[in-house]
Structure formats: C-alpha cells, structure tokens
Known about the structure:
Elements: H1 2-10, E1 14-15, H2 17-28, E2 31-33, E3 47-53, E4 74-79, E5 95-98, H3 100-109, E6 114-118, H4 128-137, H5 146-161, H6 170-178, H7 187-201, E7 209-214, E8 218-223, E9 232-235, E10 249-254, E11 270-274, H8 283-286, E12 290-293, H9 299-312, H10 321-331, H11 335-340, H12 343-360, H13 364-372, E13 379-380, E14 383-384, E15 392-395, E16 411-414, H14 417-428, H15 432-444, H16 453-464, E17 468-474, E18 486-487, E19 493-497, E20 501-503, E21 516-518, E22 530-533, E23 539-544, H17 554-563, E24 573-578, E25 594-595, H18 596-599, E26 615-621
Parallel strand pairs: 2-3, 6-11, 6-12, 7-10, 10-11, 20-21, 23-24, 24-26
Antiparallel strand pairs: 1-9, 3-4, 4-5, 7-8, 8-9, 13-14, 15-16, 17-19, 17-26, 18-25, 22-23
Helix pairs in contact: 5-7, 9-10, 15-16
Amino acid sequence: MELIDRLKKKYEAEVHPGFTAWIQSVRTAPIVNRDNEQGWQDGDGLIQIKRMKKEDLQHKEVPVPESEHPYDECLDVIKLPMEIPTEKRNPAPQFLFIRPDEYALFYCFGKQDWCILTGNPGISKSWFQWKFILLCYRQELLDRFVPFMEEEDDDYIEGQEDGNEGKGTEQVLKKRKMESVTEEIAPSQRRQKANQNVLQQSKPFLPNRIVRTISGTKSYLFFLNGPTNDVLYFEHSPNALMKFTDAESTILWEPGEVAAAIRYQDIDAHIIATVSPNIERFHEFRKRAKMFYMPCPSELQLRLMGQIYCSTAEEQYHHSDKEIHDRVIEFGPFIRIVLCWSEDELNLFKVDRMTEIEDIVSSDQSLAKALRSQVNIMESSRGQSGMSHRLARYVVHRDATKLFGGYTVPCYQISCELVRNEIITHIAQSSIQFVKQQLINANRAEKTFQLAHIYLERIFELYAKTGIQWKCFPMRLQSSLINDDCLSADDWQQYSVQFKVVDKSITAYNDMKHDVLYYPTDKSFPLVDMYYLNVEQNLVGIQATMGKKHPESVTTYEKFYEKLKTSPECTKLHLYYLILPRYVDKYYREKGAYPLSQFWLGAKTAIDSKWKENINFYTLLPPDAFEASYPNDA
C-alpha cells in the first residue's frame, strides 16, 4: 500500500473504474471452451474460447490457400466478459484473436529482459499488449499452446531418429558427418529431454505488476499479486518509470501520437515495446534490447476474424470471404487494410504503392537494388532503405531448435500477389545477362530476398520451349556424405527436355500430357514451382531455390500429391532443385565449385520411409554460357 499512497500523493494517481472492473472480471470469470457450433453467450461473466480452423468457415465457396506452417491453420478467438475500456471504438472490443505465433512470442519475451516487437503496420502489434495482460492474469490459457511445442519437439526428435538431420542445428550436422560411429543417446532419453524442454518453456517470466505506458508519460498500473485489485492511472515524466517498477515488473511501452524515444535508463523492469517499423522510436533502446518480428496473419486467420466482425461489428466492417480473399491478393495479409479500411483509404494506398513500384522497376539497376536490400520496411529520417511496407512484409522462418524460435531474424517476402506480378513482368523483360548476374549476386549473399528464386523460374520458362541441355546430379543422403566432398565436372549428368506448351493451370496426373510444362499461377501450390510428365510416365517437379536446405514436411508432399490426385505409392516423382553457384567463374567446370554441404543438407529427411524408393532428388544447373544460346523468340 505504501507504493499506492506514494503514487496518489506524488502523481495524483487515480483508480481507473473502467479497467478496475475489466480486470476484476478477467481475474474471476470462469473459462468456457465453446465448440464451434455453439454461439457466443452475452452477459454471463465468462471468458469464452473457440479454437477456429478451416472447417469453421461459414462460407466455403472461396478456396483457402495452402498454409505455409501449422501456426497459420488455426485461430483462438476469445470473448472477454467485458469490452476493453480504451478500445471501444474498435470493431470488436470484447474479442481477442490469438494466433499461435503470439503464444510463441509470449514465451520468447519470458526469456529476454528487454524486447522490441515490430512488424508491418496494421497487424495488431498494439493489441498484443492486451493479450499479454490476459495471459499473465489467466496463466491456464497458456496450456493451449503446449500441444504446438510438443509437436515441434517431436518433429525434432523424429528427424534425429530417422538417422538423418531433420531439424537439428548445423553444428549437429557437421559433428555427425565427421564422426563415423558414435555413442548415441537412446530415443527414449531424447524424448524425455524434449518433454523437459516443453516444461521449461511453459514457465516463462511472469511479473508481479504490469505498467502499460503511452510514451512513458501516461500509465496504467496493473497489480497481479496485490496489494490491490484496482488499476491505477496517472501521468508522469519518462524518468519516473524507475520509481514505481522493479525487476519483478513488466513495462508494456506503446508509442503515443508524438514520436518519443523509449526510456530505459536505470530501469530494472522487463520491457516490451510494441512499435511501428520506424527506427527513430527505438534506435538507442535497440542497442540494449532484442528485436522480435511479428509475422502477418494467414488469409485463413483473417477470414475467421472477418467472420467475427460480421456478427459483432458495425456494417462497415462486414466483408465476405470473397472480399477478404481479394483484398489479401491485392494488398497483402494486413488486418487493418483487409478488415477495416474503406474504399477511399484503399485507393489512396494504391496510388502511393504504384508510385513506389514505378520507381523500383524504372530500370534493371533500381530493381536489383531494391531486391538486394538487406533492410526493408524499416523507416528512418533518412527515408526508406529498401522496399516499404506497401511492397514487402516480414516473415518468420519458425525454428524450434533456436532460442527465440526464429522470431529475431528479419526476413522478407513480397507483400502480395499483385505486387509480385508487377515485378515479375519487369523481370520477364530483362536481359538474360542481367537475370543471371542477379542470381549470382543473390546466391552469394548470406541473406537473400524471397523473390530471388523467380529469376530462376524465369530462366527455366524461357528455355522450356526451345530445348534445354543442362546438367544435373542425383542427391545423396546426408549420412553418405564426407565432410570435404565436392563435385567436379565429371560428376554431372546430362539433363535434356523440350516442351511445346506452358500451361498455367493445376492439372491432375491422369490429365497431364507429354510436351507440356505445368507452371501454376497459384503460388500457394505446394512443393514445386513447375512440373511435367516424362516419357516413363513419372512426375518431374522443378523447384527453383536459393536456399541451403531443402527438407519439406510430410504434409507438403501429401498436399502436392493430393493436388495432382495421385499418391507416391502409385506415381514416382523426380524432384529437381534448380540452382546457381555462388561464383560465376567456378560453375561445375572447376573442382570445389560445389561443396556438397552447400546444397545437400538432408533432402530426403522429411519424406515418409515407405516413399523413399519412389521419390528421387536431383540438383539441376544451367550451363555456364547459357546466355550465348538465349532464345530469341522469348
């Protein structure tokens, strides 16, 4: 009570009646799991939860794109006992939408004292603070994420038990290659260790009190463990934060209308700052804190949110599945744009975006610079260093073997299909020399922009109708590789193919024709970019890649075969990874140009054991001087 008296005396702190009532209801409300056929109850003082999936869409006429990760396949919808007092102008102030990524981020923040959470504008970074507060008060809700953690640990173990390197770290891979026969930990022991890891992850740091502050000047103080259930509101200077927080506290920092730097000097409390991608707001703090990147929601998650809006929000927020789907294609998976913006706001956005696109594709050099940029989206007083949030979005390559699950690594993709097509159109008009050089540059870089593989697709498509005389090499299992294995010119085999037609549709196996290259325009098509039928009636898939690792999940293979209405038991697959070397002067003519460790890290690890005889892997490489025979009629 001494702290409360001091705050009331020095800062004129007052009990906030709205938040006090809200926290009282959140603290005491029974938690009820609703199945998705039950409606929401009103006025019963409950915390109601539904885990919604694809099957829960009310309108299934519009296909749902293939998910990139299991985290994209569900959404926890929570109806609170009361509206969040400061969010009453929002479309659904009594609802919280929690994605598996947000549960994962909660655990990440429990491992790091000072954190910055950023991401594209309009993906509910600020609303994460209310989810954080709810999860701290009602920790039993965290149990909903445990199955995801157990599944990730099981995947990691299974990869090791196969005798291959599934999802292990590169250090583990190197160690296994160098050691012939080593004493292995029994599978049961590894599983026990993984289960212990789950238990450790399920105990993140939980504060005794939370300060939600607007720019460090207007704050709400929540007490989780006494001395009061009241929520206090008061105004103060940023320097005062240290006077009412300690090492057992968490500060949730939200930027205000006026840009202000994050105040952290002399503060012992944990800090989570949710900020827009503007470096001026956290430049100094970033030197001490860990940066985390929130990925955008999936289209499925947006459509499930839109379904809730249609039942609770004003008519201006009512969008059909078709409207949401079309907006994702045209603008990207951004909550505010897809679910909240008016036509006038969308039109202004389109004008600004087209201006940026025209600047970027004005020349080969400007496009190369944009795609090569190591920093996109982030703004500063010096302007934009790469593509803005209109053209690019953050993505997370989730990795359960890493301390922070991959959320601290800034990776990018083109924001939406419309922007992607605009850039592809320009690439299609570029010279083959330019395309080739950009591939070499991208492959040489440690970080590559997600669009780089489109250059490779472009090369294959250009040559498809005039005849391809390239080189290929069958991949071997990781366990058969020697640490210093390299390919020489004599190791490569001949790869020859020619097509009469390029078909942009998804065609089932029984309807496929010879001499046709199937190149689906639907970029959610799983596993491969292109496919065709060879003379032996086997499927051949082409995957253009700039990556160093190629394992795909069993689910990805299943979805591929499902799309083609066949199975690996019935139809053999030859899967070619189309690559380019890191250095244009080496290619396959020089020994050492291709250390096997660069491209052969466990290609077969993820496929089911009963499929291993029916799925074969190859590396495919254009010839060194392929621009000399560049197709004139392309």
